[in-house]
Design brief:
The protein is mainly α. It is built from four helices and no strands. The protein is 83% helix and 0% strand.
């Protein structure tokens, strides 16, 4: 069974939900439900990334090839790890009791989220190149 379409679908959902979550955080803070939507979309993004990564791992495993031998896999793996860190930082903001720590966590969350989005864009481009589309 070819898992590639499922990998592409999971990763597309992850990327789209992350982009929408970032847009909501940036432009929709006047809506009182922005934070709930932002959190929900980011959780969907990370879960979809984990599913897509698992599918990729299974595909590589079934060929007997080494894992992380191409830039697409390396960047994608790093993006997944960074997504987990961004999610952790986002939830840590609400656990913090110290005003200065909260400000630092918010700043780290924002910058790590931006870096993660860029990393996902590079992973997508590398995947398209690997598939011969670019």
């Amino acid at each position: 069974m070819n898992l590639l379409p499922f990998h592409i679908t999971a990763m597309s959902i992850a990327f789209a939900s992350m982009v929408v979550a970032i847009c909501i955080a940036h432009w929709s803070k006047k809506n009182k439900r922005w934070l709930k939507a932002h959190k929900t979309l980011n959780i969907i993004s990370v879960v979809s990334l984990i599913i897509g990564f698992t599918l990729a791992f299974i595909m590589v495993q079934s060929t007997g090839g080494p894992h992380f031998r191409v830039d697409h896999g390396i960047i994608g793996g790093m993006a997944l790890l960074l997504s987990l860190c961004v999610l952790y930082l986002g939830f840590a903001i609400f656990k913090s009791k110290d005003k200065h720590e909260t400000a630092s966590l918010k700043k780290a969350h924002r910058w790590a989220g931006r870096a993660d989005l860029l990393m996902l864009i590079f992973a997508i481009l590398e995947g398209l190149d690997l598939a011969g589309i670019l």
